[in-house]
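Figure 6 in text form: structure in, sequence out.
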């Protein structure tokens, strides 16, 4: 019954937003279809996972207290991917095919890792392969960096090194956020919605459509995850794919618009688009940097998971309240994005 009410309410919100933003009706129907399919199949998958013991068990480094299925991403990623391919059916090219292949590679790797944790010696090369495929077929090298940090054109071997490092950092920074209920999903809905509007204004159809499809899937997933005791987690099958898409969308927008105009009151100025993304992705950037730094200073491997993340600290300060901890970060992000939307 609650799920039914959720969809009725969201259907009205979707209809209102579609009219406000002048979105074509069939795109709204497809968005809602992704949500509905994700919700129904997630519910069935949770029942199956609990029945056959396909669950994430509690441990010293994990916060949850009860065995919980980790199948959220396993469900919504393929549904969203199919939706994207349907939208792009009239213009499938090497960009669409290469990103689809890389998504599937990351997805399969994530499913395996969710069932039996893999060494970074296995995951890292395959994540790099997925990134290289996208970078190559989307022609991200050379890239006009807009003068950020004094860098204009990123090319040659150093361009590849920087681009691969950026993709890997983004993938893992987004993955790090999948630590408490509702945080990653809520953050992604806000950021991908913002990037959807931005990509639409610069006529980047591939990015605009995949952001919409993934957002629809994540919204439905949040129904089962954004609660005190989650019914399911996203898992690496979802979080690493979202990281890959975030890196691709960021680079594509920088490729089209290396510099952006910002308005603060009556003051207008131009800054490299890269710095706008630094602001948008403030939390995964800050959290990842502080985690890597603390691990290295303690003599630990930067790849070994722990509970040094900011959201873990918030959990301690809020008496292990998942929703409140997530809402702090999501609320700040919403304020940041609202400010950016007004100034761009």
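Output sequence:
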């Amino acid at each position: 019954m609650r799920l039914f009410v959720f969809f009725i309410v969201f259907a009205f919100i979707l209809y209102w937003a579609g009219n406000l933003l002048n979105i074509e009706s069939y795109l709204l129907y497809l968005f809602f279809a992704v949500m509905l399919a994700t919700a129904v199949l997630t519910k069935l998958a949770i029942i199956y996972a609990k029945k056959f013991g396909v669950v994430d068990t509690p441990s010293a480094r994990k916060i949850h207290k009860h065995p919980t299925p980790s199948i959220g991403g396993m469900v919504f990623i393929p549904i969203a991917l199919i939706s994207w391919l349907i939208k792009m059916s009239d213009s499938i090219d090497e960009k669409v095919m290469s990103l689809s292949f890389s998504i599937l590679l990351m997805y399969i790797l994530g499913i395996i890792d969710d069932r039996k944790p893999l060494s970074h010696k296995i995951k890292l090369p395959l994540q790099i392969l997925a990134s290289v495929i996208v970078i190559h077929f989307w022609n991200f090298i050379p890239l006009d960096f807009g003068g950020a940090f004094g860098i204009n054109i990123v090319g040659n071997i150093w361009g590849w090194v920087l681009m691969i490092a950026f993709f890997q950092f983004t993938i893992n920074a987004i993955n790090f956020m999948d630590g408490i209920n509702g945080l990653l999903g809520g953050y992604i809905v806000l950021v991908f919605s913002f990037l959807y509007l931005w990509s639409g204004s610069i006529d980047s159809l591939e990015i605009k459509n995949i952001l919409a499809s993934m957002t629809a899937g994540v919204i439905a997933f949040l129904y089962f995850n954004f609660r005190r005791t989650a019914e399911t987690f996203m898992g690496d099958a979802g979080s690493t794919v979202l990281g890959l898409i975030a890196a691709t969308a960021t680079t594509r927008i920088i490729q089209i618009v290396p510099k952006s105009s910002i308005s603060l009151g009556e003051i207008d100025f131009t800054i490299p688009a890269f710095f706008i993304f630094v602001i948008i992705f403030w939390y995964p950037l800050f959290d990842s940097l502080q985690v890597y730094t603390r691990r290295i200073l303690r003599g630990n491997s930067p790849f070994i998971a722990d509970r040094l993340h900011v959201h873990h600290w918030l959990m301690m300060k809020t008496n292990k309240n998942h929703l409140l901890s997530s809402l702090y970060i999501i609320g700040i992000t919403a304020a940041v994005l609202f400010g950016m939307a007004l100034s761009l």
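Caption detail: The chain is about 70% helix and 5% strand.
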